[in-house]
Design brief:
The longest helix has 17 residues. The protein starts with 8 loop residues before the first strand and ends in a 5-residue tail after the last helix. The protein is globular, with a radius of gyration of 15 Å. By secondary structure, it is an alpha/beta fold. 28% of the residues lie in helices and 25% in strands. A hairpin with a 5-residue loop joins strand 3 and strand 4. Bound molecules: adenosine-5'-diphosphate (ADP) and magnesium ion.
Length: 167
């Protein structure tokens, strides 16, 4: 039974290879498919360059049914996608975010306030703007190429995602 006073929930996972990354993404997608009210979540991804943030996002986009070539937000900061059933998915990469006006002017505030899945790499570069994430994923590449992952659920929605949709 999930209750707000149990939050945040913090778990550490080990992803031995990219298949483990893909499996976790598939589990989140399964939870979203089974429980549409989880689809409006904001999930942040932290970790050094090469940690596997974009790789995770790509697996998640595939798993929720985004088809075709998946472009990454390199210069645009945000790349919008539409998944199966019309679910909107916004993939942010704040690595080059340095103009606070862009938050208002480019409509980022509206995207975060609106429906659909919000995924953000480098949220710390927009720390004064982004809301508290439902689920924060921190990926660390180890010397043997495996990944140590810290998952923090800050909301009931995030906790349910973490538990694969359980109520
Ligand atoms: P980031 O977006 O964090 O800078 P990328 O996802 O672009 O990193 O790159 C991560 C690289 O590490 C990719 O080449 C990916 O194939 C590789 N990789 C190896 N193991 C994993 C893993 N367990 N999870 C994610 N990526 C992995
Ligand atoms: Mg990246």
């Amino acid at each position: 039974m999930l209750a707000a006073d149990h939050l945040p929930i913090v778990e550490t996972r080990h992803w031995p290879d990219e298949a483990a990354t893909r499996e976790f993404a598939a589990r989140l997608a399964g939870a979203i498919a089974a429980h549409p009210e989880l689809a409006d979540a904001y999930i942040s991804l932290q970790g050094d360059l090469g940690a596997g943030k974009t790789t995770f996002v790509r697996h998640l986009l595939h798993a929720v049914g985004v088809r075709g070539r998946i472009k990454s937000p390199t210069y645009a900061v945000v790349e919008p996608h539409v998944a199966a059933g019309g679910l909107a998915v916004h993939h942010f990469d704040f690595y080059r975010f340095n103009d606070p006006r862009e938050w208002e002017d480019a409509g980022f505030r509206d995207i975060f306030a609106g429906p659909g899945l919000k995924l953000a790499e480098w949220p710390e570069k927009a720390a004064n703007h982004v809301p508290i994430e439902d689920l924060a994923i921190k990926i660390e590449a180890m010397s043997d190429e495996t990944r140590t992952v810290t998952l923090q659920a800050n909301s009931i929605r995030g906790a349910r995602l973490l538990q694969g949709g359980a109520a």
